[in-house]
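Morning. Coffee machine broken again, so started the prediction first thing and wrote up yesterday's gels while waiting. Chain of 328 residues, entered below exactly as on the submission form.
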Amino acid sequence: MQRYDEIVPSALRIAVYAFDGVTMFHLSVPQLVFEEVARQGLGDWHTVLFSDRAGAVRTAEGYTVGGVQGPAAAGKADVVVVPSWHEDGREPDPVLLRTLSRAHARGATIAGLCLGAIAVADAGLLAGRAAVTHWQAVDLLAARHPDIEVDPAVLYIDHGDVLTSAGTASAIDACLHLVRARLGAAAANRVARNLVVAPHRDGGQAQFIERPLPAHTSDESIGATLQWALRHLAEPLTVERLAAVAHMSRRTFIRAFQTSTGISPALWVKRHRLDESRRLLESTDLPIDRVAALCGFGSGVTLRQSFAAAFGTSPSDYRRRFDARSRV
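Came back before lunch.
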């Protein structure tokens, strides 16, 4: 692995943070994408690994990665990448926080990929901004930093100086975006083609988010109403009808519903209609209009509009991507 003092001043220097417990996939993605730029002769890009202290790290798979530099390496980088973070969301070592803050202050681009967005946020680099992280950590990031607008439906968000990406494979999208932003679409397309990945993917991680029915609710009437509504998604489910099923007044029902679920009845119904539409798209060959009718959207147009707004893709594209039926 090449050291910075061996690199000509005009080179783009990229430092990737390595830590004990990082997965090989997360650690390798930025190296794979950025070093492909150099392999293809598209730019003099060089990548090094750094950590809170020089030495070696042990990956989640049990491998030891040596030759990891200390934080001074990030102090000379043009781009500093935190490729992931600990699944428990622990607070970063002050050494990393200082390293990220100082790199950002002198003009380096900071990228928090997947759970790495947590460390970038803890360094104070996302205050008052929008960010994205793995969908399983969205609530954690939002609770820890209420001043950050956490968007769970996109693959990456670039502010120019700070970039965050969604879960796991979207790190590839974010790294290709950095190539595109610095070298142009043609270079990014060439890198993507050689890596055999899409140069730009439509949609976002909202396509992968699970929204299961709460296992229980403190209000038995609301719980029974939720179960009833799931069996009648194809029918009109107005607040008045749901309140009648729960044997409550409209006002009492709305208050009890929000207390139990945390969202409004209309939003709850829409989410579960969308979930049912995804299930049907994955497991059947029913026409889009029929799926829309069975899920209570009324028409294929309404389903397409709602689906695109929620998942960033069309029902047809979703079916092609997630068709779970057996193929002979």
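The chain has a mean pLDDT of 87. Going to sketch it on the whiteboard this afternoon.
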